[in-house]
Amino acid sequence: MVPGKVATIEDVARAAGVSRQTVSNVINAPSKVREPTQRKVQAAIEALGYSPNAMARRLRTQRTSTIGVRLDAFSGGISGVVLDRFVHALTEHASTRGLRVLLYAARTVDDELRHINEFADGGEVDAIILTNTAPGDPRAARLRERGIPFAAFGRPWGAHDLEKAGHPWVDIDGAAGTRAATEHLLERAGRRIAFLGWPSDSGTGDDRERGWRETIGPRAGDPSAPRLISAETVPEAQAAVRSLLQDNDIDGIVCATDVHAIGAHLAAVRGGRSDLQIVGFDNTAAAEALGLSSVEQLPEEVATAILEMLMGPEGTKISRPPTPTPTGRLVEPELIVR
Amino acid sequence: MVPGKVATIEDVARAAGVSRQTVSNVINAPSKVREPTQRKVQAAIEALGYSPNAMARRLRTQRTSTIGVRLDAFSGGISGVVLDRFVHALTEHASTRGLRVLLYAARTVDDELRHINEFADGGEVDAIILTNTAPGDPRAARLRERGIPFAAFGRPWGAHDLEKAGHPWVDIDGAAGTRAATEHLLERAGRRIAFLGWPSDSGTGDDRERGWRETIGPRAGDPSAPRLISAETVPEAQAAVRSLLQDNDIDGIVCATDVHAIGAHLAAVRGGRSDLQIVGFDNTAAAEALGLSSVEQLPEEVATAILEMLMGPEGTKISRPPTPTPTGRLVEPELIVR
DNA sequence: GACCGTTTTTTGATCGATCAAATTTCTTTT
DNA sequence: AAAAGAAATTTGATCGATCAAAAAACGGTC
Which residue, B6, B63, B47, is CA-closest to A117? Predict the structure, then answer.
C-alpha cells in the first residue's frame, strides 16, 4: 500500500490473510465470522487505519444514509431560530444513528422540486424532511410519486382530518402551549387575560389562539378579554397594547410569538404597568434576555420523533428505510416561567 | 427499463443509439461530441428523465463535491445565531457552485478528530470548514496531515503573525466594527463613550475592545472612559451599567455583544437615561426588536470568501479542489443604525 | 481515390465495496 | 470412520459511472 493513499478492504484482507468478503463480514455481520478470524481482521483494520469507502458502499448498497433538509432562505426574524435549533438537534441525533444530514437551499418551490428530482434520480438521499408544508403541497405529491420516503415538520394544514394527511408529520402543539400559558396567567395574574396574535388567519396563528380561547372560555365568568391584532413587528404590537391598556383592565397577555411579547413588554413598562404579566412563544434569546416567560417549542423532541418515524425506533439496525406509515404526532411544548 | 426504477447511463445510451461514453461526454465534455449526436442524446436524457447517479460518479472520480461543516452543540445564547447564518449562507452559495454541505455534530475535540479521520478514510468530503479555531488547534494539524483541504471561520488566534497561520482563514474584523460604532457615537452622542465587554481576555473580546480604544484614544481629550466588565449574562451587564451611571457621566456605550447591549439598555431605561446611546454587536433579532443599533457581522460575506479560498474563484469549473493557499482575510462588518 | 492526420465514437478496465453462490472447513450423527 | 448437515470462508458478479486506449469516421491533400 502506497503511503499517503488510504487503505482499501483489499489491503486489509491481504494483511490479515483472509478474503475481502470476510473483512466485509467482520464489519457488517460479525456473527458470521469466527472469533479468532475476527481478531486477526480487527488487528489489520487498526494497523492500517482502515475505514470503508463511503461512496463505494453506497453505490453497492443503494443506500446513502443521508437525510436531506431544506434550509429556507434566512428569514432574519426571531422565528427562524426554531428551524435552526431543529437542524441542530437533527444533526446530533442523526449522527448517533449513523446518518448524515445534507442541507440544500431552494428559493422557490420550483427550485425545490428540481432538487427533489435530482435527489431521486441521483440517489443522493434516503429520505427528505420537509418544512413549512402547506395544504396541497406539490412537494409532498412529488416525493410520493418518486417514492422517496419523507416526513414533514409541521402538520398538513388544511387537511380536515389530520389522520388522513397521507404522509407522516410531526408538529408542535401550539394550542397546548398557549393553554399552559393561559392557565399559568389565570393562576398567577388574574382573570382578565388577553391574547396578542397575528392580524390575518394562519394555521399556526389560529392554533395558538385556540389554546387561549378554550382555556379562558370556561373559566372566566366575563366575556373573554378582547383579542388584540397586530402585524409581525414589535412597534405594532407595542402600539396595540398601549391602546388596549388605556381602555381595559388587563391582568396578563398571552402572545403568539416573542416578537409580540417584546412589544407588549415595552408598552407595559413605558405605560407604568411593569406588573403586567406577559407570556411569549418560541422562547427565543430575546425573551430570555428580557426575563419574559415563554413557551418553549422543544425542537429537539421534534427531531427525535421525526427520525423515529422515518427510520424506525432508535437502535434499529440501519436498514432499508421502511416506507413510513402516514401518521402524525403533536409534541407538547413546555412553558418556561421567568 | 423497468418503470419505477431510475434510468442509468446505459439506458440513455441504448435509447439514443450511442455508447455509454458518448452520453457521459455530452454531460461532462460536450465539446467532444458532434452537434447532431448531442441533440440525439439530450433528447434521450429528457425523455428518460435521466440524471447521473451521484454515488457512482463519486466513486469513480474520487470527488464528492461535498463540504463538511461541524455544527457545534447548540449554544442557546444569542451568539450562536451568527454561526447559523453562516451555515445558511454557505449552503446557498455552495449550491450555486454545485456543492453540497454536509453537517456533522461533535461534542468534543476527540469526537471531531474521529469524524475527521472517517471523512478522510471514507472519502466523504472534499473539504472541511472549521469553526472556533484555537491556537495550536489539533484539528488543523490532523487535517493537514491527512491532506484534506480546509479553511477556518475565525482567525488563528495566538499566531503572532497572522500571515503565517499555515492554513487559510476568514474572519470578521471585530476591531473595525467597534471602531465604526465608536466613531458613530462620538459624532452623535458625545465624547464620553464607554466600552462594555467580557470580563476575561479572549481573542474576540480583545479584538473588539481594541477598535474602541484605538478610536477613543486620539479623539477624546480626557482619559478614555472606564471600561466596564461583565460576564455573559444580561443581568450582570445591567448591574454593571447601573453602577457606572451612578458615578460617571456617560454619553454612549459600545458593547462587545448584543447581550451586553440589552443589559445596558435595560439599565439606561430603568435609570431614567433613555437618551443614552448604545451600540451592540452581532445585530441579532433581539437588538432589532428593541431598536438598538448594532454591528452586523455579514456572515454571508464570510461564506463567499471562504468558498472562494477553498474552491477557487466563482465560475471555476468544478475541478480537483486546489490545495488552498494559506492566507487570511478579514471581512469588514457593517454598522446598522437604528 | 489512396493516404494521412484529426476528430468523433466505442470498447475494456476500474473505482471499492456488497451480494449471491460456490467451496471449504468444522460438527454432529450413525 | 464415513456421511450428512451446518458454519465459515472464498470466488465471481455487480452497483453506475469515468478514464484510458483502441477503433471508426471525417476532412483535406495530392
Answer: B6
| C-beta atoms of B289 and A89 within 8 A | no
Predicted TM-score (pTM) of this structure: 0.85
Phi and psi based region of residue B87 (left: phi greater than 0; alpha: psi -120 to 50; beta: remaining): alpha
Largest alpha-carbon pair distance within chain A? 87
- The Å distance, CA of B60 to C1' of D19, is 9
Comparing CB atoms, the residue among B50, B81, B91 nearest residue A105 is B91
pLDDT at residue B117 tops 60? yes
B258 to chain A, minimum CA–CA distance in Å?
10
Mutate to test the interface with B, among A9, A27, A46, A71 (most CBs of B within 10 A): A71
Quick check: B216 and B193 in contact, CB under 8 A?
A: yes
A54 is near strand D: CB distance < 7 Å: no
Percent of chain B predicted with pLDDT > 70 = 87
Identity of residue B278: I
pLDDT confidence tier of residue B221, bands split at 50, 70 and 90:
very low
Domains of chain A: 9-52 (1.10.260.40), 66-171+299-331 (3.40.50.2300), 174-296 (3.40.50.2300)
Residue-wise pLDDT for A9-23, tens only, equals 999 999 999 999 999
Q: What does the alpha-carbon distance between residue B155 and residue B172 come to, in Å, rounded to a whole number?
A: 8
| Residues B203, B109: Cα–Cα separation, whole Å | 19
